[in-house]
Amino acid sequence: MGKKVLVTGGTGYIGSHTSVELINAGYDVAIIDNLYNSEKSVLDGIEKISGKRPVFEEFDLCDIKKLEEFLNNRFKPDAIIHFAAYKAVGESVNKPLEYYRNNLLSLINILEMMDKYGIPSLVFSSSCTVYGQPDVLPVTESAPVKPALSPYGSTKQIGEEIIRSTMAAKPQMKAVSLRYFNPIGAHPSALIGELPRGVPENLVPYITQTAIGLRSELKVFGSDYNTPDGSCIRDYLHVVDLAKAHVAALDRLINSKNRKNYEVFNLGTGKGVSVLEAIGSFERVSGVKLNYTITKRREGDIEQIWADPSYANRELGWKTESSLDDAMATAWKWEKRIRNKK
What we know:
Layout: E1 4-8, H1 13-24, E2 28-32, H2 42-50, E3 55-57, H3 64-73, E4 79-82, H4 89-94, H5 96-117, E5 121-127, H6 151-169, E6 174-180, E7 182-184, H7 203-211, E8 218-221, E9 233-234, E10 236-238, H8 239-254, E11 262-267, E12 273-274, H9 275-286, E13 292-295, H10 310-315, H11 324-341
Parallel strand pairs: 1-2, 1-4, 2-3, 4-5, 5-6, 6-11, 7-10, 8-13
Antiparallel strand pairs: 9-12
């Protein structure tokens, strides 16, 4: 029997890929998800890839009684990876209270139950949005956390503070916050991938949906940024590489390799890619010419950000392996599979 891991939000995009990598690494996985932004059929994909179906329970983590019941009766984990959160930046601006309630209360409930049931280890899904527009590039973990540009970003900052202060008060517990840059792509099998509800907020699903004819055109927001081609720059990493980083972080905690009981790591490739370069990569691997237009800047967009991942490379023994083209190819394979199926 492997160590037991509870993955909250495990049927979501990053959660499902991480569940696969955990099972591949010998962990026993249970998933709690309220299916707010995912489908139960994702469990079939996880099972087909890994050969094991995770324990699954559908409920909202803001309901602490249901969480306690689950821990009492269904699954007592050795560690928790906490993904479950609302994550759309634009939506968070329109629904701030929903975002604060959902994202923070679920985390507080998790931490309370960890303390009560002696679950020592937590990996928290954070974000590079905590840095805002950094003064220095690439971004290291010591870069200042700037005022958030959205309630979503604010919940990640506050979430980190809640964990930091909890770990300070509870030395028997330990946690890692992983600040991701921009996850893209899908599992090479095309059995799981990114499935946004409604209009995608992220670039790559919008690219693939435009290429397949679901969207009439792709809008590139801004051509007058202070970047080589005038479009925004981001650090795009393959979701499978990102999933493997969660396993590395968990191994570190479970094997007591952590240097402090609260640590933070940046997860990225270390390479900045512009929106126009990302479009070029997709066109190259797919052979599809994208219909895109350049329009005015979008409010709240950061001009340029990419990671210095050397700390994670060194401490976690992790680094990205897939190229931008690799990620685009898997995203396109996934898009074609889900559209042909429906």
